[in-house]
Amino acid sequence: MIAVVDYATGNLRSVADALRRAGAEFTLTADPAVLRRADKVILPGVGEASSAMSKLRERGLDTVIPTLTQPVLGICIGMQLMCLSSAEGDARCMGIFPARVLRLPSVTPDGALLKVPHVGWDTISDLRTPLFRGLAEETYVYYVHSFAAEPCAATAATTDYGHPFSAALARDNFFGTQFHPEKSGAAGAQILRNFLNL
User: Fold this and answer.
1) Chain mean pLDDT for the chain
2) Residue 118 three-state SS
3) From 93, 118, 145, 180, active-site residue
């Protein structure tokens, strides 16, 4: 059974729809006991990092999630909350991944202007971890974000938007994607299947 963490942060419906399309059984929950029993855990999220982190703390989930031993997937803000900190609201996060979450630059190194938030399709490269089994380098995925994790030892894929950032992170049983696999078409469906098959 898949447990999707319900902490009032947005994209639960699109994640639930993607899991239904994959034929997965799942439950929406904030119950630590259910999370610990689940075969897999998904931490979704849309919104602002400091308020999302506060919602996790209110439910005691900030101390539960780092202790989970089954595969855990953070999506968008969910992945950011698994990092050390976020510049969005100066949030202290769960520290699972050794990266800071920083605001995307609005200017490239050569002075060209960039739109922030970064919205739409972009490519991922330097693919590592079983999440990307069956996917080619430079596969397109869908983004909606203004902040991203810096490259670090846990970086499992990168995207270059003026500067490189961590498109995905992986460490032990923890995985994260800055992009939205549930909105990334066939590639995103493959990534979710790969996670479900871990």
Assistant:
1) 95
2) strand
3) 180
